Amino acid sequence: MENVLVDLHRALGADDPERYIRFQQEAKPLEPVAENQLLITGQPTTTAPYQDHDSHIRVHLGILEQDIYSQNPSVVAATMAHIQRHLADQFRVEVQQAGVELPSGSEQLSPEQENQIALQAAQAMDTIAPSSELSMEDMLAQAEQRLKEAELELERRKAASKEQFDYAELAQEDKHHAQDLAQERDETIKSSATSVAIARINLRGRNAKQTNGQSSK
After folding, report:
1. Within 10 Å of residue 201's Cβ, how many Cβ atoms?
2. Is residue 178 part of a domain?
3. Rounded CA gap, 10 and 74, in Å?
4. Domains held by the chain: number
5. Does residue 176 lie within any of the structural domains?
6. What is the domain extent for residue 112?
7. What letters, b where the CB count within 10 A reaches 16 and e where it falls short, cover 118-151?
8. What is the 3-class SS of 100-111, one letter each residue?
9. What is the pTM of this model?
10. 80-118, pLDDT tens digit by residue?
11. Is residue 159 part of a domain?
């Protein structure tokens, strides 16, 4: 079960999927609203056989129905994995309610006992399968669709961020170019002003020489 959940987290794009399993091993079952708070904030969660799994799942699906959370791949991955745990616990309870005696998780069974449980569980599936199909598959399909939408939104945001960065980079280049042009203009003006000043000095010098020459005559 843990390997399946790790693969689920990895497929949904979660960072360090093993971290969620470690968290779940340390967690305690709670009421669904408190579990939602933990899922949203990336805290450990777990489930228990005695919980009202249908109600829990409906509350947890509420996370995936809100854009602010459904666009966060890590929150979606954690929520989906938690819902899968509820479904697994619910299935076990339904098998037991159908009259199949199941051992505890740590109890060691002989091959004969395993085959006996397999036979009883197979017979129980005739009554379990219709009730386990309900509308849960539809809700999970919607959740998966929201995950795809979240991934598309993430890609759109990445593209938008890159476009904004390109515009900012272009604007920065334009700013530098404008500064270079302004500096070049200032230098041209200074150079022109200097040339005009020199020309005026030279002109005054020539005028002064001509005036002195006329006076001497």
Report:
1. 10
2. no
3. 10
4. 1
5. no
6. 2-149
7. eeeeeebeeebeeeeeeebeebbeebeebbeebe
8. CCCCCCCCCCCH
9. 0.52
10. 999 999 999 999 999 999 999 888 766 788 899 899 999
11. no
